[in-house]
Specification:
six-stranded mixed sheet; 2 domains; 13 helices; TIM Barrel; single chain; four-stranded parallel sheet; Urease, subunit C, domain 1
Length: 394
């Protein structure tokens, strides 16, 4: 065993209080944590913070070919129009090349695992040989009821390709506004059976207006495109999703469910979700929310309810980077009352728990191999700043 030692002004193990002027010792052969502690007074300590490898809880890495091509501030309806116009401009080889480029960058920045969305198999070859662990959610779309059977057959074929590539993957529903009630239930059933479900939930007020009132920009967008819209329920879009889950499988649900975005989340929605979902996680993608419609989730409400929050980057169609530290700085800037230890728990440990990879990832715990990341340019209190950047040490 070859033991190496790295030091920093702060060490965030995420299993105990942050350590000032601390060290982490690890096995240089396999990266396993051997010892963590406080440096003695005479040891030279590096500037920055040592943290576990990040878990990007929501990404669409196959959309990396859309980097820099979208207008900001268009709202969800305008964003969807841009996706439809630009999604297919690149060929398979270009998409795969950019998937590798951005996964390599995320790895170098310290991302050890990712919950990723795929609509095709263009990322599979990269994922199967990459050092980063990925669980791939094979996202399902289809607004017309007659499409359900064919869409489910197509995603079953995509699942076979993922199996052949040796990557963890299963179908998952996209959102209320892109799916018929029948398809939403069918894809949710497949996701629940796999043990994992990821769902774009309450990303914008346009989505809420669509389901609650049958009006608004999203409603007009769908109608202009000749697409059916979900039934008007008078309630929230998350409430509608929970009703469709009940049509798929009886509650309660033991699967790990990730509700992504949550910009319009209310106390009523939280209570409804926790009542039926036994392992529900909530993914924040703040820079994407600002990019599309200059809004953020109700983080104070989420914290008061003790929700298991995770952090993701979303895609390069709605973000300028796939940088977890920039997401954390955005959250710190807008919610300065949240301790850095808690932000990192969201970005590392909770994501690992969602993926059921916390036996190895998520904290600087002796015996684990989470990856060790140095965050540069932190402030005197251990918070990230606008100049902070991350660098993988192990």
């Amino acid at each position: 065993m070859a033991i190496k030692r790295v030091t920093a002004s702060f060490v965030y193990t995420l299993e105990s209080a942050p350590i000032r002027n601390g060290f982490v010792e690890y096995d240089d052969c396999d990266g396993r944590i051997v010892r963590v502690g406080e440096c003695d007074g005479g040891e030279l300590v590096s500037e920055g913070a040592l943290v576990p490898g990040f878990v990007n809880a929501h990404c669409h890495v196959e959309l990396s070919h859309l980097h820099g091509k979208f207008r900001k501030g268009t709202g969800m309806a305008g964003f969807i129009d841009q996706i439809n116009a630009l999604r297919d401009w690149a060929g398979r080889d270009v998409k795969a090349s950019l998937v590798r480029k951005w996964m390599d960058k995320m790895w170098a920045d310290g991302v050890s695992a990712m919950a990723d969305i795929s609509n095709d198999d263009s990322s599979f070859e990269v994922k199967k040989s990459h050092m980063m662990y990925t669980r791939t959610f094979l996202e399902v779309f289809g607004s017309e009821p007659h499409m359900c059977e064919g869409v489910m057959a197509d995603v079953a074929e995509l699942k076979l390709k993922a199996d052949m590539a040796g990557i963890d993957a299963a179908p998952t529903p996209h959102s209320c506004y892109t799916m018929s009630p029948e398809l939403l239930s069918a894809s949710s059933a497949a996701a629940l059976d796999s043990g994992y479900l990821s769902y774009h939930s309450q990303e914008s007020m346009e989505e809420e207006e669509l389901v609650r009132y049958g009006s608004g920009a999203m409603y007009e967008n769908r109608k202009r495109g000749g697409m059916s819209t979900p039934p008007v329920t008078g309630g929230s879009s998350l409430g509608y999703f929970i009703d469709r889950l009940a049509c798929a499988r009886p509650a309660p649900y033991d699967a790990h469910v990730l509700l992504v975005h949550d910009v319009c989340l209310s106390q009523e929605d939280i209570d409804a979700a926790k009542k039926v979902m036994k392992n529900v996680y909530w993914a924040l993608c703040p820079l994407s929310n600002i990019f599309i419609h200059n809004a953020l989730p109700p983080v104070p409400l989420m914290r008061r309810n003790g929700l298991d929050i995770t952090v993701g980057t979303d895609s390069l169609s709605s973000n300028d980077d796939l940088d977890m530290v920039k997401e954390l700085y955005c959250l710190h800037e807008n919610f300065p009352e949240v301790p850095m230890q808690e932000l990192l728990t969201w970005a590392c440990l909770n994501g690992a728990r969602f993926l059921v990879k916390d036996a190895e990832l998520g904290s600087l715990t002796v015996g684990k191999r989470p990856g060790i990341v140095l965050v540069h340019s932190i402030d005197v209190n251990g918070f990230v700043t606008s100049k902070s950047r991350s660098e993988r040490i192990v």
